[in-house]
UniProtKB/TrEMBL annotation:
It comes from the Bacteria. It comes from Microbacterium tenebrionis. It holds the Pfam family Mannitol_dh_C. Belongs to the mannitol dehydrogenase family. GO terms for biological process: mannitol metabolic process. This is Mannitol-1-phosphate 5-dehydrogenase. Residues 289-436 form the Mannitol dehydrogenase C-terminal domain.
Amino acid sequence: MDRLGRASLTSLPADIAVPSYLDREISVGIVHFGVGNFHRAHQAMYIDRLLQVGTADEWAICGIGLFDRDARMRDALVEQDGLYTLALRHPDGNDEISVVGSIRRFLHAPDDPDAVLDQLTDPGVRIVSLTITEGGYVEDATDGKRAADDPNVVAEAANGLSAPLTAFGWIVAALRERRRRGIPPFTVLSCDNVPGNGTVARRSVEAVARMVAPELADWIAAEVSFPSTMVDRITPVTVDADVDRIRDRAAFVDAWPVAAEPFEQWIIEDDFPAGRPDFAAAGATVVADVHAYEAIKIRLLNGGHQAVAYIGQLAGYRYVHEALGDPRIAAFVRSYMEQDAAPTLAVPEGFDVPGYIDELFHRFANPAIADTLTRLGTDASNRIPKFVVPALRDRLAAGETPRAGARLIASWREFNRQAGAGAFTLDDESAHVLMESAADPRRFLLALPTLAPLADAPAFVEAYLAACRIIAQEGVDAVLGS
């Protein structure tokens, strides 16, 4: 069977949308680090929409892969003329399929670092964006990360960024070169699920720059923009069944298609001195301040993901929709959202929080997405401090005891304890510390500095220890009924 590519587009079924712009003269205006499923189902899709109507011909994307594992994405895109399929999975089982072509170039840094620097210093590039996951940022006050403690940053700074290893090393090296040549700086746009992601990106870039040349860091602080964003679309990991579904429907092979839920949201702070695409025309919301929207999404959606991830696996479920089909788990997750997270929000005028929560449950229950609890629980040592701890801290500061949140942390601790015994696979950079400390409930709360606000709150500790005792004595079913 034919591989997806420009030659195969003419033979596709009429209900599959294809790029109309491939024969036009379009140029790269965005360089993106972290070309994974979320980027391809979100930012690249928005740019594809604008390219389709001819309003973003100077804003095509060049993807950058930094790691050896990124060679697989390089090969998939290069062999398919930069094309891939996006399948929106509707709850009735129907797929809405389109071919996306907005990633017009992909560079693998280990293969050709000179080409990466050339692309980043191209005057036509006015935005450098990131989806590198919560754990990819090297300077983050939320979890105490410091660039000076990152071995890759230390190594790239020691050689004066002659061979960058991190996205931030590449960004600083490119900004330094653009400054030297008199080329205006680009905007750095984080698209990660990180609270205040613009600020976190700024701190990471400036910290790396300061390790190399303090005056360069000062220039970046004064001249470079780091707008914050809020992004939202459930995008599972691609599995073999996704490849098979595309092959059966479209009669071609896509080596790495991406599936996503129909829902999408992108809130963008309007701070682009070098210019930007008309994101609003593509369906994004451009605002002066994203923080209130960001907090709603992070504390309800991302926090809700954490609420279901561990209790769901402990109860024997694999998929999110299966777990929330259990009325006890659904009630637990809703109680966390409504009782512990929602009261901490500063809600923009006209925003319907109860309606938003109902919409989240509708989205989570979509069986066509088949989102796994394992995916939601990945990298929890970074996610829980960002998505859950701030809400619990705010409830405690208000004189309230977040009892659902205490059960959430207790379920996470039990999950880590059982992972240490081999019942689950733990995908977390702090896996050893978490599994080792989980044998003792009190010690677990002290395992990570980012849990300190909880460990220092007697009311929370009491509720948490009570939940741990119930789990230990009666099992997870008992804590769901408490």
